[in-house]
Design a protein that fits this description.
- This protein has 13 helices and 23 strands.
- The chain is an alpha/beta fold.
- It folds into three domains: 202 residues, FAD/NAD(P)-binding domain; 117 residues, FAD/NAD(P)-binding domain, CATH 3.50.50.60; 114 residues, Enolase-like, domain 1, CATH 3.30.390.30.
- Strands 1, 2, 3, 4, 5, 6 and 18 form a seven-stranded mixed sheet that branches. A five-stranded antiparallel sheet has the order 19-20-23-22-21, sandwiched between helices. A four-stranded parallel sheet has the order 10-9-8-14, with helices on one face.
- The model has no long low-confidence stretch (mean pLDDT 95).
């Protein structure tokens, strides 16, 4: 008779939980996955899926309004109704949710259990009045919107990413608290759909993890597109006046101003979903920022691992999946693998996108000083940018003296797709200039990588000692 009910119990039915449970079941282990509410997690229900659906719809609205750029005349000028936008978003969420119902996991041999679990000790949990035991646990409970203690916020009907997609229709105007990825993406999308948007950010810039040069370009474009960017402002107090929400702000010089809108989106950050798990009963150390883990993703409790947003430091679905693979392997096998964040990559899906891999220029200079080489290329210089009327933006690649990538950053059309070629080269330790020798399809946006790689290749030739001597004789 087995000592425990399961070899592995995974707590959390989102991206990390899916990967952990499927991997363990594929290895022949007895697995259960516990979800408090609905399968899919933040990404499916409130994050990636609805936001990217909204963004795609907003881009289509922009293309319709700008049809003249493509030689199309629409007469009379179209009046775009947005009443069906949010119902469409919810229909796509439902479609994705339907693709991973409990039955699909049961067929893989994974028991799906619903309810709020609580730890009894490091091998037992209590669920719906019953006790279940496991040899190992993986916690992947995700994160939730962080609600700041701003005066009056609890007196207004504020929105978060968990509630904004449930609205009946788009608000006429929107204040976005926070200029991070969630705030910037949704502000950009709602602006394209005709909503009057203001972003309030306490720092002097939005997207403070991104390369400053590219953020400056994006910020200028946002301003040109009609977004009211209020950086360097601290929210002081919310109030309601004549059915509209008023926010009092203060800048670094202690000067105050007020802005108004029909709705407020709170997007200042995330907090780990740790409440109600009774983690202390298992000996797990944690804060609202996340569960403490070592480089193998083991918590402070023996036999319990954690992954995804509840751990951090990068709160992206693809990072949850990366961590889930490592946590599961370490939970099940004696040879431990450590997480490696040197090759983290992501994209913020503003209009246009900004993609990120490795060090920014600012970070690279702090580490390497001036011993770096930077290669830039403009979208306006590539033919696909001209054919697609997508000439705004730039790619930027930061290399060490040997031509190996320290960082890659792209602002422009399809940046989140284009960055992957540089990411592969960086992850595999390939010199950036080698990408120039790869055959690329013409005309494609990948020229935003190919041409900078060519510049790196030319640099290498010019610095080759043998060629320098040869040029002197010739």
């Amino acid at each position: 008779m087995a000592k425990h009910d399961y070899d592995l119990i995974v707590i959390g039915g989102g991206a990390g939980g899916f990967v952990s449970s499927k991997l363990a079941a594929g290895l022949g282990k007895r697995v259960a996955m516990i979800e408090k509410d609905k399968l899919g997690g933040e990404c499916t229900l409130y994050g990636c899926v609805p936001s990217k659906t909204l963004i795609r719809t907003s881009q289509l609205a922009r293309e319709i309004r700008n049809a003249k750029r493509y030689g199309l005349a629409i007469e009379p000028p179209p009046k775009i109704s947005t009443e069906g936008v949010l119902p469409h978003v919810r229909s796509v969420v439902q479609k994705v949710y339907d693709s991973h119902l409990p039955d699909a996991f049961q067929k893989l041999g994974i028991d799906i259990l619903f309810g709020p679990p609580r730890f009894v000790d490091n091998h037992q949990i209590e669920l719906n009045g019953k006790r279940l035991s496991a040899r190992r646990f993986i916690i992947s409970t995700g994160s939730s919107p962080l609600i700041p203690p701003i005066e009056g916020l609890n007196t207004i009907p504020y929105l978060t990413n968990e509630t904004i997609f449930s609205l009946g229709k788009l608000p006429p105007s929107l204040i976005v608290l926070g200029g991070g990825p969630i705030g910037a993406e949704l502000a950009s999308a709602f602006n394209l759909l005709g909503v009057s948007v203001s972003i309030v950010e306490k720092f002097e810039r939005i997207l403070n993890r991104e390369d400053l040069e590219l953020v400056d370009r994006l910020s200028k474009k946002m301003l040109e597109d009609g977004i009211n960017l209020l950086t360097g402002y601290t929210p002081l107090k919310f109030s309601m006046q004549d059915g509209r929400i008023t926010l009092a702000l203060q800048d670094a010089k202690n000067q105050t101003k007020e802005i108004q809108a029909g709705a407020v989106l709170v997007a200042i950050g995330r907090q780990a979903n740790v409440e109600g798990l009774f983690l202390e009963n298992a000996g797990i150390e944690y804060t609202l920022k996340g569960i403490s883990t070592d480089p193998t993703l083991r918590t402070t409790a023996p036999d319990i691992y954690a992954c995804g947003d509840v751990v951090g430091p990068y709160q992206f679905s693809h990072m949850a999946e990366y961590q889930a693979i490592i946590a599961t392997q370490n939970a099940l096998f004696p040879f431990k693998k450590r997480v490696d964040y040197r090759d983290v990559t992501w994209s913020v899906f503003t209009d246009p996108e900004i993609a990120h891999a490795g060090l920014t220029e600012e970070e690279a200079r702090k580490i390497h000083g001036d011993n770096i080489k930077i290669y830039r290329y403009e979208y306006s210089n590539i033919d696909r940018g001209k054919t697609d009327a997508a000439e705004f933006g730039m790619s930027k690649f930061i290399c060490d003296p040997k031509g190996r990538l320290l960082g890659a950053h792209i602002l422009g059309a399809r940046a989140g797709e284009i960055i992957h070629e540089a990411q592969v080269a960086k992850s595999l330790g390939l010199p950036f200039y080698k990408l120039y020798s790869v055959i690329h399809i013409y005309p494609t946006f990948i020229d935003m990588v190919k041409h900078p790689a060519k510049l790196c290749y030319i640099d290498r030739l010019q610095n080759n000692p043998f060629l320098k001597i040869l040029r002197r004789f010739l």
